[in-house]
Amino acid sequence: MNRRPSPILEHGIVAAAGPLLVFSLYLLFAGHNQPGGGFAGGLVAGVVVVLGWSAGGPEAVSRIIAVRSSALLGAGLVVAALTGFASLLTGSGYLESTSWELAIPLIGKVKATSALAFDVGVYLVVVGMSLGLVQALGEETPADEEAT
Amino acid sequence: MVYLLLLHVALAFGLVAARSRIGRWPFLVGAVGPLAVVVWALSRAAAVLDGAPHHETVEWVPSLDLVFEFRVDAYALLFLLVIGVAGTAIFLYSARYFESSPRAAAFAGTMTAFAGSMVGVVSTDHLLALFVFWELTTITSYLLIGYADHSAQARAAALHAALVTGGGGLAMLGGLVLLGNEAGSLSISQIVANPPAASGAVTLAWGLVLAGAVTKSAQFPFHGWLPGAMAAPTPASAFLHSATMVKAGIFLIGRLAPAAVASTGWWQGAVMSIGFATMVIGGWRALRQHDLKLLLAFGTVSQLGFLFLLVGAGTVELLFGGLALLAAHALFKAALFMVVGTVDHEAGTRDLRRLSGLRKSMPAVFWTGTAAAASMAAVPLTYGFVAKEAAFDGLASNGMFLIAAAAVASILTVAYTGRFLLGAFGPHWEGHDPAGENAQTPRNALLWAPLGLAGAGLVLGVAPGIIKPLVAGATAAVFPGEIPGKLVVWPGWVAALAWSLASLSVGALLVWRRALLERATDAVGRVAAHFPTADGSYRRAVAGLVRFADRSSSLIQNGSLPTYLAVITLVAVLLPSSALAGGLGGFELPRAGGLLEVIVGVVIAVSAVAIVFTKRRFAAVILLGGVGYGTAGMFAVLGAPDLSLTQLLVETLVIALFAFVLRHLPSTFTESSTPRTPRVVVAIAVAVFVFVGGILTGAARSGRPVSDQYLADSVPEAGGANVVNVILVDFRGFDTLGEITVLVAATLGAAGLVLPIVRRREMDKT
Q1: Which of chain A's residues have a Cβ under 8 Å away from the Cβ of B743?
Q2: DSSP states of B97-139 as a string?
Q3: Which of B129, B217, B314, B517 is the Cys-Cys partner for B257 at CB 3.0 to 4.6 Å?
C-alpha cells in the first residue's frame, strides 16, 4: 500500500516514539528550573504524532497514543483551570503557585509545585491539539486514493 | 422589599417549573405575588404617607460599590398599590379565563415575573438597577404578548413591542449613564434633589431618557406597538395596559420631571406636545375600530397621552391631577379589558358589529362594563369624573390652550366609550351575523374580578376622601410642600366643571348621532389613509434596517480572502501608526550584533525574500521554515534557550501540517484574480510598519522593565529557576489559561471545518 512507504521506517518510528515521549515528559517536569515546560514538552509529543502519522497513518498513531484528541484537550483544560482553584484553598490568589517538599521513599526529597499541575494541563492541551490537527488535516486526499 | 422581589422570582420560576402539575391553580398561586405587594404597601402606608420613605439597601459587591438600593416614598407607593390591586384582580380573573395546561402555568410564571419587574422599576433608587428592571419588563412582556406562538401575528406584535420598547430602553440607558455622570450620582433621589446644571450633555441625557419613557408609554410616534400587543391573551393586555408596562414610562417622567424642568428649557413643551398628539391620535383611531379590544387599546393610547402630559409637565397641580387620573385609569381600564375578555370568552367574538343582545343575556357583565365605562367617560359620581376634575382644575391654571386640547380629547373619549358600550351590548350591525345572544353570565371570577374594580371606581366616585391622602402624598413626595389640588365629588361651579360638562355633552351628542359620526370619520379616514401610520412607519423602518444590513454585509463580507486580509492588516497598521509617528523624532538604532547574529539574520532575510519569488508551494513552505528556524537560531544566539526550543518545535509541527494541507492543493501557485499592485502596497506597508514599529517601541521604553522584577521574584515567590516557565505558569498564569483555551477552540474549529468535507467525500465514495 502506498500509504506505508517502508515497514522498517514505520516500526522504527513506533519504537522510537516511546523514548521520545519520555523525553517530552522530561521537558515537562524539568521546565520549572531548566529549559522546557508543558508547552515545549507537548510540542515534542506533537512532533512524535506527526512522525507516526507520516510513517504509518492513523494505525501507527493509535499505537503511540491511544487516547482521543478531544479527551486530551478537555482533560488539559480542566486540569489547568482546576489547579488555579487549588491555590485558592491555601489562601493565595487564583493560579498563584504553592510548593511542597515531599519525601518519597527510595527517590528522596521531591519538590512539588502546583504550577507543575498547571503545566501538565498545558501539556495535555498541546498534545491534544497536535493530535486533533493531524487527524483532521492528514486525511487521505483523492490523489492518494487514486494511487492505491 | 427585597423579600417581595425574591417572592416574585421564586413564584415565577416555581410556576414555570411546575407546568401542569398544579392543575388550575397556577394563577391563584401567582396571585400571591401582587397580593403580597398590596399587603406590604398597606402595612407601610401610614409611615410612608407621613413623609418617611422606606429605605432598604442590600450590598452585593461592596468593593465595587454595587448595591441594591430601594426607596419607597409615597409616589412609589401609589404605583405599587396600582400594580398590586390590578394585578391581584387580573390573576384571579385569569384562573377562570385559561384552560388548565402546562402553557398556562408558564404564562402565569411569566406574568409573575413581569409583575415583579414592575415592582422593581418603581421601588429602586438606583438608575442602573432601574434600567435592569425596565428591560426585564420588556423581555417578559415580549413573552406575554407572544403567548400564542403559533400565530405569526402574535409573534410579530411581540417583536414590535420588544424592538420599540427595547430600543427606547437602550436610548434611556445612554441617557441615564450621562445623567448620572453629570449629576455625579446614580441615586435617583439625589439627582432629583440636585439636578445637574444645563449643558449640552445634560440636554442629550434628558432627551434620551424622554425617548425611553415615550417608547415605553406608547407615546406618539411610537404608539404603534400597543394596539399590536392586543395579540396577547386578554388578561395580559389588561395587566400591561392598565397598571404596568405603559405606566413605567409615566412613572419615570413623573419622578424626573421636576429635575428635567430645572435643567432644560424645552422639557415641558416637548412632553406636552407629545402627550397632546398622542391623546388626539389615540382617541381618533379608537373611533374607527371594530374589535372591542383594539378600541380599548387605542383608548389606552389616548389616555396615556393625557397622563403623559399631566405627569410629565413637572408642575405640582398637573401632577396631582395626573396621579388621580392614573389610579382611575388603572381601575376602569383593567375592568374594561376583563369585560371584553369575558364577552369574548362567552360569546366567542369581540367584533362589535356582530355582538348582539348581550345586555339581556349577560346583564351583570353589562352593568359592570357600564360602571367602568362611565368612569372612563368621566360621568359625574364616578371616580373618573373626580380625577378628571382635578386634572382640568390643574390645566385651568395653566392656560386656555391646554384645557381646550384636553377637552377635545375628552370629547373623543366620550364618543369611543359610547361606541364601546353600544357595540358590546347593543344590537348587531346590519349585514353582520349576530353573535352572543345565548351567552351566559359567568358566575365566577370572570365576573367578580372586573366587577370589583369597576365597583371600586364607583365607591371612590362618591367617597374620594379614601384615596385623597395617597394621591396628595404621592404628589408631595415629588413636590415637597403644600398640595393645592382637591379630590371632591362635586367641585362647585368652576371653570373646570364647565369644560368637563361641555365635553361630556358634545361627546354624548356624537354618540347620539353616531351614524353621522361614522360617515364623517369614514370621510376623514379616507384622507388620513394617505398619512403614515405608526404601524406602517415601524414596518418601513424595520424593512429599511434589513435592507441596510443586507447591503452593508454584502459590501463588508464579500467572501474575498485578499480583501479580508487587506482590511485586517491595514487597520492593524494604520491605527497604531498615528501614535508611532510621534516617536519618529528621536530614537536610537539598536546596537549592531556580533558575527553570529549577522549570519543568522542573513539566512532569515534571504529565505523571506525567496518566498516571494518562488512558484512552487512546497518550496515556499520550506523557505518559510527557513525563516522560522533562523528565528529559533537567533533566539539561541541571544541567550533564550526556552524560546528557541519552543520556536524550533512549533516550526517543525507547522511545516508538517502545511505538508498535510498542501497535498490537497496544486503544486504551483495559481495566478490570483486580484491585481498585483494593491497587494504589493499592502505587503510593503505591513513590513515597513513592523520594522519601524519594532525599532520605535524598543526605543520608547522609559520605565524599568518588568522583567527585572520577574527575575528577582522567580525563585523566592514561585520556586522555579526557569523564569520563562515561571512567567507562563505563575506570574501570567491566567494569560496562559486563556491561551490554551484558544488552542482548544482553534483545534475544534479546524477539525470542524475539515472533517465535514472528509465525511462528505467518504459518503460520495460509497
Answers
A1: 73, 125-126, 129
A2: HSPP-HHHHHHHHHHHHHHHHHHHHHHB-BHHHHHHHHHHHHH
A3: B314
B671: buried, middle or exposed (CB in 10 Å: 19+, 13-18, 0-12)? Answer: exposed
**Residues B574-589 pLDDT 10s:** 888 777 776 666 666 6
* Cβ under 8 Å to A: B residues 54-73: none
Q: Find the closest chain B residue to A118 by CA distance.
A: B729
Do residue A97 and residue B719 have CB atoms under 8 angstroms apart?
Answer: yes
Domain ranges (residues) in chain B: 2-512, 558-587+672-702, 593-670, 713-766
Please state, rounded to an integer, the average pLDDT across all residues of chain B: 84
> What pLDDT does residue A148 have?
45
Q: Which of B663, B725, B739 to mutate to test binding with chain A, by most A CBs within 10 Å of its CB?
A: B725
Nearest to A31 among B660, B725, B733 (CB): B725
Q: Where are the domains of chain A?
A: 7-78+116-147
The one-letter amino acid code at B368 reads T
Q: Is there a contact between B371 and B384 (Cβ–Cβ < 8 Å)? A: no
Give B230: exposed, middle or buried? Use CB within 10 Å, 0-12, 13-18, 19+: buried
CB A147 within 8 A of CB A2: yes
- Residues B218 and B165 sit within 8 Å (Cβ to Cβ): no
Q: What is the pLDDT of residue B604?
A: 92
Q: Is the pLDDT of residue B105 over 70?
A: yes
Whether A31 sits inside 8 A of B747 (CB atoms) is no
Residue B552 pLDDT: 87
Alpha-carbon distance of A36 to B725, in angstroms, equals 8
> Number of A:B CB contacts under 8 A?
154
Q: Three-state DSSP class for B196?
A: coil
The share of chain B scoring above pLDDT 90, in percent, equals: 10
**Cα B539-B540-B543 angle, rounded to 5 deg:** 85
Q: Is the ipTM value over 0.90, yes or no? A: no
Q: How confident is the model over A80-105, as a mean pLDDT?
A: 67
Q: Are A124 and A76 in contact (CB under 8 A)?
A: yes
